[in-house]
Design a protein that fits this description.
The protein has about 100 residues and is of the alpha+beta class. The protein has a domain at about 45-95: OB fold (Dihydrolipoamide Acetyltransferase, E2P), CATH 2.40.50.40. The protein is about 40% helix and about 20% strand. It contains two helices and four strands. It is rod-shaped and about 70 Å long. The protein starts with a helix and ends with a strand.
């Protein structure tokens, strides 16, 4: 009888913990940047850009190059602003 009284609260606690951790997995942003490329690249080599989520600790822009690479860059850099303006004028922008 004592074992039954002990098992039910433990089972409820385990299920609650599983539900909580499962719900937290999908809550975060898809991609955040922690290291940045500070070397300017030519705007003709960039085909698209994506702004990272506001939930990321650092604001960033992901530039997709002609070669298919993604580079994390700082949105405040003047050369990045120029690329964003160039791509936005062509209608190729998106956001995460």
């Amino acid at each position: 009888m004592a074992a039954a009284r002990f098992c039910l609260p433990v089972l409820v606690l385990v299920l609650a913990a599983l539900a909580l951790t499962h719900g937290m997995r999908g809550a975060g942003p898809k991609k955040c940047c922690f290291r940045f490329n500070d070397i300017p690249i030519e705007k003709e080599k960039v085909v698209d850009y994506v702004k990272t989520s506001q939930r990321c600790s650092r604001p960033a822009v992901l530039l997709k190059t002609v070669a298919g690479r993604q580079l994390c860059v700082r949105p405040s850099a003047p050369w990045v602003k120029e690329i964003i303006s160039y791509l936005s004028a062509e209608g190729q922008s998106s956001s995460m």
